[in-house]
Amino acid sequence: MKNSAKILEKFFKKEDAGVLDVFLKDHPRDIYKADHKLIKKLIRPRPLKGHKGNFGHAFIIAGNAGTIGAAILSSKAALKTGCGLLTAFVPGIAIIPLLVHLPEAMILLRDDAEGLHKIELSGFNAIGFGPGAGTGKESADLLFFLLNNYNGCIVIDADGLTILSQNKDWLRQLKPNIILTPHPAEFDRLTSVHNSEIDRLKTQIKFSNDYGVNILLKGHHTSIVTKQGLYFNTTGNNGMATAGSGDVLTGIITSLCAQGYEADDAMIAGTYLHGFAGDKAAAKFSKHSMIASDIIDGIGDFFKEYEINLTA
């Protein structure tokens, strides 16, 4: 408990100490820092004789008219994180831009919600849903179908979270292998408006307990609620507060899930990796000038350091 208090104080310096004491009393779960030492234990070496079939098939449902970039960013981030195969389920307008920017991706055409019914979803090891997907009936029908017909890991972000906030009766359909990745405004739409970060953290824990779902609350120090405890991420910077950064995180976590990581490990490792890549991007381009694509370029820096340390 003493160690948990120290960690909490580090991430909530502006909060009154008495408030933190009450929080620890009301929420007596272990609190951890997601730091380099922990991530080294979570990241797995790639099998020496592995082939693309060993590293999972990720399925990304993203993009729409005006938001094609979200599909490109999330799909590219997934491949850069190491999944063996990536299929993007996108509208026809996105096909050419996606192939131009990411020829490694496979594509399935998303004409309407019925198209998903014809796909053998069991062939995918994890699904990322939401970045730029839209919030209309077609997208809502897609998400509803997934919640009822797919048993693997689903990472729900962006428009997917908005759809859930508009259909809160669906929350009871969430499963333990579903990951929600809201920023504070998205989380408040799912729950209620909060007046402080500590109050929002309390609700995050309660929401996870009530619905049995993994929830990652993005912010200056992203908080992650898992069945093991509460984790605070230690990487990242304010230059990552830029369009598309969350789409990159969705791709990273989806890729790790597709590779066989448990949902909680994928959340913790993926968030750390995302922040690490963002720190590399800031060092190269500055916090003012970095963009989401620069974060993707930093993913390789993380794995390069990991592989060097693995063979040292």
What can you see in these coordinates?
The protein is an alpha/beta fold and 312 residues long. The protein has one domain (52-311): Ribokinase (UDP-N-acetylmuramoyl-L-alanine:D-glutamate ligase). It is built from 13 helices and ten strands. The chain has helices at 2-11, 17-26, 36-42, 68-80, 95-101, 114-117, 137-149, 159-166, 184-190, 197-211, 245-258, 263-285, 292-311, and strands spanning 31-34, 57-61, 85-90, 106-109, 126-129, 153-156, 178-180, 214-217, 223-225, 230-233. It has a ten-stranded mixed sheet, with helices on both faces. A hairpin with a 5-residue loop joins β8 and β9. The two termini are 36 Å apart.
Helical/strand content category: alpha/beta
For the biggest β-sheet, the strand order reads: 1-10-9-8-7-6-5-2-3-4
What's the N-to-C terminus distance? 36 Å
Q: In the CATH hierarchy, what is the superfamily?
A: Ribokinase
Biggest β-sheet description: 10 strands, mixed
- Assembly state: single chain
What percent of residues are in strands? Answer: 5-15%
CATH architecture: 3-Layer(aba) Sandwich
What's the gyration radius in Å? Answer: 19 Å
Helix segment count? 13
Enumerate the spans where pLDDT stays under 50 for 5 or more consecutive residues. none
Kindly identify the CATH topology: UDP-N-acetylmuramoyl-L-alanine:D-glutamate ligase
Number of discrete domains? 1
Beta-strand segment tally: 10
Average pLDDT figure: 92
Order of helices and strands: HHEHEHEHEHEHEHEHHEEEHHH
Q: Which of globular, elongated, flat, extended, rod-shaped describes the shape?
A: globular
Q: Which CATH class is shown?
A: Alpha Beta
User: Helicity, in percent?
Assistant: 40-55%
